[in-house]
From TrEMBL:
PROSITE patterns: PROKAR_LIPOPROTEIN, TAT. Keywords: Signal. Belongs to the UPF0065 (bug) family. It comes from the Bacteria. SUPFAM superfamilies: Periplasmic binding protein-like II. This is Tripartite tricarboxylate transporter family receptor. It comes from Achromobacter agilis. Residues 1-26 form the signal peptide. Gene3D superfamilies: Bordetella uptake gene, domain 1, Periplasmic binding protein-like II. PANTHER family: BLR1237 PROTEIN, TRICARBOXYLATE-BINDING PROTEIN. The keyword Signal applies.
Length: 328
């Protein structure tokens, strides 16, 4: 009887040890099946292109397919819910972008989650900048100072376009008016393309479009680029100074793409995926395509991205409150 009891005890103990070791074994075996990258925008956009570029490279390295799923709508909330609704087992990630920092700062509707606590920042994939562009028939100036002088001379005459309320262009335009103590009417559009069309036509006087949307039009004699945002000059526009160089500080808010996981995802998997992204953005073919999209490849570790994300959230919140920027 004692021997039987002993065998029972040993068997139970072994089962307990095995059960406790399952998460570690699962993490060690990762990935054992296909991974999903959920994108909060439609196919063909910047985030989708970045996600598919990473998926192809990392999937090959991990020898597991990475499936890109587009869950557009709700300013990213649909995609966020899809990630948080899946098991936090390292098989579902989200390729998020700047909207994740902007939406909590501007939304008048309570979000179904908290971006700062319900998601784990995995890696900052790439960053980009915006450009200050003027329509030459509307305000024919050749410097930021001259634009400021024109706005001050005729406060009710000019307008600036953006690709939607609460967009990066909206924030930058509002910040510009605040910093320079000038006025101009904000004209929001449903996307960058119609906004650029009206900027070229002179319907709006100036704008802060993203470089990807603006670059195809910068050789036109109808517009002139005066400055770039960000901490350094762009490789594609090396002759154009930054806003900071011209004495306008704080214009380092810009676009970015980053990978997120749901809270509870094993840290070993988060670290592994971050390392995969770092390797991917250093690969010559991936780096060339990102630079071709006017993106600055980063590939950070989770800790660095988490610090960046928290700072970004606070910056957008401060500016939204200061400029009273709100979205439905």
């Amino acid at each position: 009887m004692k021997q039987a009891a002993r065998r029972h005890f040993l068997a139970a103990a072994a089962a307990l040890v095995a059960a406790c070791s399952l998460p570690a074994q699962a993490a060690d075996a990762w990935p054992a099946r296909p991974i999903r990258f959920i994108v909060p925008s439609a196919a063909g956009g910047g985030a989708d292109t970045v996600a598919r570029l990473l998926a192809q490279h990392i999937g090959g390295a991990l020898k597991q397919p990475i499936v890109v799923e587009n869950r557009a709508g709700g300013s990213g909330v649909i995609a966020g819910n899809a990630v948080l609704g899946a098991p936090a087992d390292g098989y579902t990630f989200m390729l998020g972008f700047t909207t994740m920092s902007q939406l909590p700062a501007t939304s008048t509707v309570k979000l179904p989650y908290r971006v700062d606590t319900d998601f784990i920042p995995v890696s900052l994939v790439a960053r980009s900048s915006n450009v200050l562009v003027v329509n030459r028939s509307s305000v024919d100036v050749d410097s930021v100072k001259a634009l400021v002088d024109a706005l001050r001379a005729s406060p009710q005459k000019y307008s600036y376009g953006s690709y939607g309320n609460g967009s990066t262009g909206h924030f930058l335009g509002a910040q510009f008016l605040q910093e320079t103590k000038t006025n101009a009417q904000h004209v929001p559009y449903k996307g960058a393309a119609p906004m650029m069309s009206d900027l070229l036509a002179g319907v709006v006087s100036f704008a802060f479009p993203d470089i990807g949307s603006a670059l195809p039009h910068l050789n036109s004699d109808r517009v002139r680029v005066l400055a770039v945002t960000g901490d350094k000059r762009m490789a594609t526009l090396p002759q154009i100074p930054t806003m900071g160089e011209l004495g306008y500080q704080g214009f380092n808010l810009g676009a970015w793409f980053g990978l997120f996981a749901a809270k509870g995802t094993p840290d070993a998997i988060v670290q592994d995926m971050a390392a995969q992204i770092a390797g991917a953005v250093k690969a010559p073919e991936v780096q060339a395509k990102l630079v071709g999209m006017n993106l600055d490849p980063v590939g950070s570790d989770p800790k660095t991205f988490a610090a960046f994300f928290q700072t970004d959230l606070q910056r957008w919140a401060d500016l939204a409150n200061k400029a009273n920027i709100r979205t439905d």
